[in-house]
Amino acid sequence: MQVINVKSALRDYQVHITETTDFIRDLGNIKERLYVIDSNVWEIYREQIFRGIDPSKVMVLPIHEDRKNLYTVMEVYDELMSRAAKRNMTLISIGGGIVQDITGFAASTLYRGLNWLYVPTTLLAQADSCIGSKTSLNYKNYKNLVGTFFPPNSIYLHPSFLKTLRDEDFYSGLGEVIKLHLIGGADHVKSLLARIDQVRERQPNALLDAISGSLNVKLGFLDDEFDRGKRNFLNFGHCFGHALEATSNFAIPHGQAVMTGMVFANIVAKNRRFMSKNFFAELNEKILLDNIVSRPTQDHLNMEHIYSAMKMDKKRIGDGLTLIMQGDGYKMTKITDLFHPELEKSIDELKEVIGVI
Ligand SMILES: NC(=O)c1ccc[n+]([C@@H]2O[C@H](COP(=O)([O-])OP(=O)(O)OC[C@H]3O[C@@H](n4cnc5c(N)ncnc54)[C@H](O)[C@@H]3O)[C@@H](O)[C@H]2O)c1
Ligand SMILES: [Zn+2]
Fold first, then answer.
1. Protein residue with least CA distance to atom 18, ligand 1
2. Of all atoms in ligand 1, which is nearest to the CA of residue 125?
3. How far does the centroid of ligand 2 lie from the alpha carbon of residue 238, in Å?
4. How confident is the model over 156-165, as pLDDT tens digits?
5. 173, 179 in Cβ contact below 8 A?
6. Which of 124, 148, 164 finishes a domain?
7. What is the end-to-end Cα distance of the chain in Å, rounded?
8. Which residue range forms the structural domain that includes residue 149?
């Protein structure tokens, strides 16, 4: 078992990366506990890994991005209250980023903070979202508008859950893995590229390396826990990616939208001469284009829709649009002066580079 320590203002916590499922038995020793489990994950694993879980202590949560809101959090409060939850209750969440966000928010607000353990079961959650302390809910049409900072007390990461992920969810997670390795720089990219085929075949050791590599890069940015400066760079690919998620009505999964967002950012960087043409072509060929499996349509890339979606970015402060970019040598920067004409030209180029459907 490998343990990663994460420092956080609220409390330090640990990620236990484990190849066995013994942790399920250990969790069963916690006296006051409620499991909140993604319904798909519960169905797949109830007869195997979850055999030891007492079903009377399980709340099964149907998962959809539309349900990542305050109403579903209230369902979790109701379940806890119906069990006369006290402050010594431990909430154990098992599932992907949606379960993490809903239960993390519930745990952070009920009694101003319950014990909370998290078992991530998607690649996105294992390689990225499980650390960083954020909980986010959608409000009306606004994605991740409401949230808190509240890390779990502990995370149990078991990569063999990833075998049963649908391809689209696997490739969404891979988008974040690639993003984190790119931000990590040359050595990280090199080690990911050396095993990218095995990662795509979901070979356990290759996945483990990709996950721990991703978490280690992210850790380096978390000393800026509350998102004030350098943590912004983790948003590489997200300024455009979030807009694409919105214009595609979430038909393009998050990490895949981020992949297209990174190609878009690279186009702007290249045309501003922050990234050389050679490096641009090399990244596209080696790591970006082959791993985009959910391509946007002409409609998804409608200029006006993208523009209004990018204007909604909650981190934007000035008049122009914000964009995190990468340049030669994997150097990161942030611009806040992306305006209409440059956006339009860059979207046209993006269509040529990635090939729309
Ligand atoms: N809080 C954060 O820091 C943070 C960071 C990034 C993303 N997010 C949020 O995470 C969400 C996306 O998370 P996600 O990509 O993990 O998706 P998800 O939670 O929606 O899960 C994707 C699908 O996979 C299924 N699933 C989960 N585990 C499975 C398994 N082991 N086998 C088979 N199917 C399984 C789920 O039922 C669901 O249908 C978004 O809402 C995003 O905003 C949060
Ligand atoms: Zn993301």
1. 96
2. 16
3. 6
4. 999 999 999 9
5. no
6. 164
7. 44
8. 2-164
